[in-house]
Design a protein that fits this description.
Structural class: alpha+beta
Helix content: 25-40%
Strand content: 15-25%
Largest sheet: 4 strands, antiparallel
Number of helices: 5
Distance between the termini: 58 Å
Shape: flat
Strand order of the largest sheet: 2-3-1-4
Number of strands: 6
């Protein structure tokens, strides 16, 4: 099962026939495993990694550290679940350290992100403080180099 998941993680577009050949299993078995993994929510979805700058779209991405006051009987979970529901939010992680959550959001501009933090995130009961960082340029995302410039790195030799 782990091998199947690793293959999909690196290239979710592989056809079942290719996966079956690599794993030395029947297509039926692989399809059955895929359906079970999806049903059990081991596989949560299939995504495409897009370089939006090359597609002509510009987004601002921010990483926000959030300090919380845990709620009785639910800890941080209820607040994290509420934050997850915002459309701007791409990811939410529970962390160790000074801050409790790491929230990654996208917006059309710096002011959109500032507005989101000031009016929607910071006003949630239990949020005690935030610290924001803006991503300036991605070099690698989800294990893939974003702007992989295959170039000749040999030194020029002149006579």
């Amino acid at each position: 099962m782990k091998e199947l998941l690793e293959l999909l993680e690196h290239d979710a577009r592989r056809p079942v026939s290719e996966l079956a050949a690599i794993l030395q299993r029947s297509e039926y078995e692989v399809e059955k495993d895929l359906r079970r993994l999806e049903k059990d929510q081991v596989i949560l979805g299939y995504n495409t990694l897009i370089n939006w700058n090359k597609a002509g779209e510009n987004f601002v991405t921010a990483v926000i550290e959030v300090k919380l006051r845990p709620q009785r009987e639910v800890g941080f979970d209820a607040i994290a679940e509420r934050i997850c529901r915002f459309d701007e939010v791409q990811s939410v992680y529970l962390m160790s350290g000074i801050f409790d959550l790491l929230v990654i959001i996208e917006g059309k501009s710096l002011s959109d992100i500032a507005d989101f933090i000031a009016t929607r995130l910071a006003t949630i009961d239990g949020v005690t403080s935030t610290r924001s960082h803006f991503m300036l340029k991605p070099y690698k995302k989800d294990g893939l180099i974003v702007d992989n410039k295959e170039c000749d790195r040999r030194l020029v030799v002149s006579p």
